[in-house]
Write a structure and sequence with these properties.
The protein is mostly helical. It has a single domain, classed as Alpha Horseshoe (Serine Threonine Protein Phosphatase 5, Tetratricopeptide repeat), CATH 1.25.40.10. It is built from nine helices and no strands. The longest helix has 14 residues.
């Protein structure tokens, strides 16, 4: 109801990317991916936060295929996935056993120089373990800061 009131009254902040990302997160935390997705799909402009929020929402609610699909859609935009994006999509890859997909993301992480980020490295190591690649996980763990 509050969201509808804000939209109907045409408050300026209703079109603010930051506000819309918060709405996506709010709806997801309330269990409504449908409304999260509606807000996301109607955004005029998306930033890393909005992409990360919707990817994480789908992953948390048990839709890892959709999370990976959204990750690919993000890659086709002008935005570069960041450490938060990687930390959200890697568990989705692990859930569906998409090791090849995760290896491509791993290479992208290296290329962007964010492998030293502990959250990213931990997500990557966890994904390797869950996909049965213990040696790669151990090697990564041993190189972590």
């Amino acid at each position: 109801m509050v969201h509808s009131f804000i939209v109907l009254r045409r408050f300026a902040f209703a079109k603010c990317t930051s506000f819309q990302s918060k709405l996506i997160n709010l709806y997801a935390k309330c269990g409504s991916l449908v409304y999260s997705r509606k807000v996301f799909d109607h955004m005029e402009e998306r930033d890393n936060v909005s992409w990360n929020t919707i990817i994480a929402a789908y992953r948390r609610h048990g839709y890892p295929h959709e999370a990976v699909k959204l990750f690919h859609q993000m890659q086709r935009t002008r935005l570069q996935p960041n450490q938060f994006t990687s930390a959200s999509v890697l568990p989705a890859c692990a859930k569906i056993g998409a090791l090849e997909e995760a290896m491509a993301i791993h290479q992208s992480i290296r290329d962007r120089g964010i492998l030293s980020n502990v959250i990213v490295a931990t997500s990557l190591a966890d994904m390797f373990v869950k996909c049965g690649n213990i040696n790669e996980a151990r090697e990564l763990f041993d190189r972590m800061p």
